Fold this sequence. Notes:
By secondary structure, the chain is an alpha/beta fold. The chain has 8 helices and 5 strands; from the N terminus they run αααβαβαβαβαβα.
Amino acid sequence: MLGQHMEREIREQPSVLRNAAYAEALAPIKGREFDMVLLVARGSSDNAALFARYLIEVHLGIPVSLAAPSVWTQFGRRVRYRNCLGIGVSQSGAAPDIAEVLEALRQDGHATVGITNTAGSRLSQCVEVPVLLEAGLEKALAATKTYTASLLALVEVVRALGANLGQNAL
């Protein structure tokens, strides 16, 4: 049964990507410049974040770091960043550690983007710029539509940041 769900969801990916309107959601960061980007994610979303790291560093030359949420959640520390864009990626938007990092970044005056499939989730509510994937419900265990939609949303982030630098990055 799970295999059938996964196959169906894989077949739904092209329509999810075709209907995506992520660039519009990212308009609030389009006119801004950042000295660095901090990516906050876990699991398959962390893999998507690694993809974004390569795109941002190779095409834009902006340094990127992948966050270690336990610094905030387990050790109770705040990392001092300067002019940082924090990007959280979580298909469910429910990961408390990802939201906690982004909440702290926002409290420290940094711009924040949250990429999630779940409207009203903690992630979508705690960031300055929520990007809803609108990929629909996934029943398969492995992320399918939400993973590829996350990749496209992250490409749109790079495009928005490239516009800030006067570059057509992708």
